């Protein structure tokens, strides 16, 4: 089922941003997240901006609707054994 959100989402703010290509042959397209969005999330979680950027990542959700929906998800670190008696951490996907 296709959904069209191009008319806007009720009770939302709208800002337009340029996109830019990064990497060889435009492998990645980058767009900025408005600072006010990050500040809102920082306030909700009672973190500093630096800690938020360290602990969370942006998640793009897309499929059978027009556009993309971004959310934030906490980065989960899991401990792995690298050598006997030592532990290391890696991010889970």
Features:
alpha+beta, 93 residues, extended, two-stranded antiparallel sheet
Explain briefly what this protein structure is:
With 93 residues, the chain is of the alpha+beta class.
Task: Summarize the SSE layout with pairings.
Elements: E1 20-22, E2 28-30, H1 35-45, H2 49-55, E3 56-61, E4 69-74, E5 77-81, E6 87-91
Antiparallel strand pairs: 1-2, 3-4, 5-6
Parts with pLDDT < 50 across at least 5 consecutive residues: none
Morphology: extended
Count of all domains: 1
* β-strand amount: 25-35%
**Total number of beta strands:** 6
Question: Taking Cα atoms only, what radius of gyration do you get, to the nearest Å?
Answer: 18 Å
Distance between the termini: 28 Å
Q: What's the story with the biggest beta sheet? A: 2 strands, antiparallel
Instruction: Indicate the structural class.
Output: alpha+beta
Assembly annotation:
single chain
Spatial strand arrangement across the major sheet: 1-2
Round the mean pLDDT to the nearest integer and report it: 81
Proportion of helical residues: 10-25%
What is the helix/strand order?
A: EEHHEEEE
Question: Please, how many helices?
Answer: 2
């Amino acid at each position: 089922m296709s959904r069209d959100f191009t008319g806007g989402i009720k009770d939302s703010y709208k800002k337009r941003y340029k996109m830019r290509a990064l990497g060889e042959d435009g492998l990645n397209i980058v767009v900025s997240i408005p600072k006010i969005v990050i500040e809102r999330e920082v306030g909700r979680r009672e973190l500093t901006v630096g800690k938020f950027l360290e602990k969370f990542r942006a998640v793009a959700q897309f499929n059978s609707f027009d556009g993309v929906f971004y959310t934030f998800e906490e980065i989960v670190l899991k401990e792995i054994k690298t050598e006997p008696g030592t532990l290391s951490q890696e991010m889970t996907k």
